[in-house]
Amino acid sequence: MGVPKESNGLDVVPLGDSLAATHTGPILVDIGGNTGQQAARLVAKHPELAGKVVVQDRDETISRAPAVKGVQLMAHDFFQPQPVKGAKYYYLRAILHNWGDDEAVRILSSIVPALAAGGGSQVLIDEVVLPEEKSHVWPAGLDLQMLALFGAGERTAPQWDALLDRAGLRAVRVQTYAPVYRGCVIFAERKD
């Protein structure tokens, strides 16, 4: 079963000149970002973000990543406290569907202390948001694969809300960018 060709989650995130000019710290921290492919595409599309994008992954992954101009590569275990403070966006793409609820809450909770208060920082969760019934075969199949492989799975909007609440976050916006396979970016902020 191939992935339907649809747009990219970062296409729905407000990035660009004005943000790069006004936000003093990192703009995007790509948590679990592998070797930086997504970040490389982002900086190529928005060169004004060069130097304000961080890719984090395990040491063995980062150590084999090619250098990407304008992107900082950082070894980091996402179960540990987030070392980059006050970034505008902390981005997790296809990370949480690999983990059960308790582990996903640990991952999200490790980010919360790094968030700037008052909506200055957001967690971007780029995942499938399943409908509560009558799902397309692709996201339903992916849900079953995640269950078989990891004992985890895709989540519905109420399941995402409950997960965020347990981690001290709340969804402020959900933007669908891939209607067929229900690819969405959940914009989350601290509850306090």
Automatic annotation (TrEMBL):
One Pfam family, please name it.
Methyltransf_2
Q: What Gene3D superfamilies does this protein map onto?
A: Vaccinia Virus protein VP39
Query: A single Gene Ontology molecular function, please?
Result: O-methyltransferase activity
Q: What are the protein's UniProt keywords?
A: Methyltransferase, S-adenosyl-L-methionine, Transferase
One GO term (biological process): methylation
Q: Does the keyword Methyltransferase apply?
A: yes
Which PROSITE patterns does the annotation name? SAM_OMT_II
Q: Which domain of life is it from?
A: Eukaryota
Residues in O-methyltransferase C-terminal domain copies: 27-169
Q: Give the matching PANTHER family.
A: O-METHYLTRANSFERASE DOMAIN-CONTAINING PROTEIN, PUTATIVE (AFU_ORTHOLOGUE AFUA_4G14580)-RELATED
This chain belongs to which protein, by name? O-methyltransferase C-terminal domain-containing protein
